[in-house]
């Protein structure tokens, strides 16, 4: 008898973690109109990932599937996230990455558009840098990369590879689209996602205040 394609108990545990976090992220308004996609690495060859087009605030285990690192569905007829290639790209490139989260908050969407020409959001002097693995002080300058949006995943991956040059970056923005954040597990990826959202929100607010002559 053929061995099962993957460990179902491991898959069910990953699905439960994704569901728990997506409920909270949707409640924040970061997954409008089915936007967002979420995955956890199961092993060297498989990841649990959200099925394309689902309401990410109402996921059940049936809305999550398994892909291999070539983005092929495993043991299902469902279609994975349209952006599955962006998740497996990070799993292939960074062996220690265990989870990838993608959201479309207004802050993330606008910040990417505002900084599209620069190709980065330059952050300086934030205590919250310390929420990002490998960062230990506010006395730093951190560039969050921004890449142009595209419907061609290979083009997006090439853009990301060109800007992911610094260690401990943990995220990137797609202009007019949203934020990708990752970590060694889903809780660390969530901490990074929350930290980038806060930092980008501060930058937008400072821009607003300066425009008002503050
Ligand atoms: C309706 S948002 C457009 C698609 C997108 O950017 C996204 O994050 C969700 O796509 P998926 O295929 O993962 O549902
Ligand atoms: Zn998206």
Automatic annotation (TrEMBL):
<keyword id="KW-0479">Metal-binding</keyword>
<dbReference type="InterPro" id="IPR001303">
    <property type="entry name" value="Aldolase_II/adducin_N"/>
</dbReference>
<feature type="binding site">
    <location>
        <position position="102"/>
    </location>
    <ligand>
        <name>Zn(2+)</name>
    </ligand>
</feature>
<dbReference type="GO" id="GO:0005737">
    <property type="term" value="C:cytoplasm"/>
</dbReference>
<dbReference type="GO" id="GO:0008270">
    <property type="term" value="F:zinc ion binding"/>
</dbReference>
<keyword id="KW-0456">Lyase</keyword>
<keyword id="KW-0862">Zinc</keyword>
<dbReference type="Pfam" id="PF00596">
    <property type="entry name" value="Aldolase_II"/>
</dbReference>
<dbReference type="GO" id="GO:0005996">
    <property type="term" value="P:monosaccharide metabolic process"/>
</dbReference>
<protein>
    <recommendedName>
        <fullName>Methylthioribulose-1-phosphate dehydratase</fullName>
        <ecNumber>4.2.1.109</ecNumber>
    </recommendedName>
</protein>
<dbReference type="InterPro" id="IPR017714">
    <property type="entry name" value="MethylthioRu-1-P_deHdtase_MtnB"/>
</dbReference>
<feature type="domain" description="Class II aldolase/adducin N-terminal">
    <location>
        <begin position="16"/>
        <end position="204"/>
    </location>
</feature>
<comment type="function">
    <text>Catalyzes the dehydration of methylthioribulose-1-phosphate (MTRu-1-P) into 2,3-diketo-5-methylthiopentyl-1-phosphate (DK-MTP-1-P).</text>
</comment>
<dbReference type="GO" id="GO:0019509">
    <property type="term" value="P:L-methionine salvage from methylthioadenosine"/>
</dbReference>
<dbReference type="InterPro" id="IPR036409">
    <property type="entry name" value="Aldolase_II/adducin_N_sf"/>
</dbReference>
<comment type="similarity">
    <text>Belongs to the aldolase class II family. MtnB subfamily.</text>
</comment>
<keyword id="KW-0486">Methionine biosynthesis</keyword>
<feature type="binding site">
    <location>
        <position position="104"/>
    </location>
    <ligand>
        <name>Zn(2+)</name>
    </ligand>
</feature>
<comment type="pathway">
    <text>Amino-acid biosynthesis; L-methionine biosynthesis via salvage pathway; L-methionine from S-methyl-5-thio-alpha-D-ribose 1-phosphate: step 2/6.</text>
</comment>
<dbReference type="GO" id="GO:0046570">
    <property type="term" value="F:methylthioribulose 1-phosphate dehydratase activity"/>
</dbReference>
<keyword id="KW-0028">Amino-acid biosynthesis</keyword>
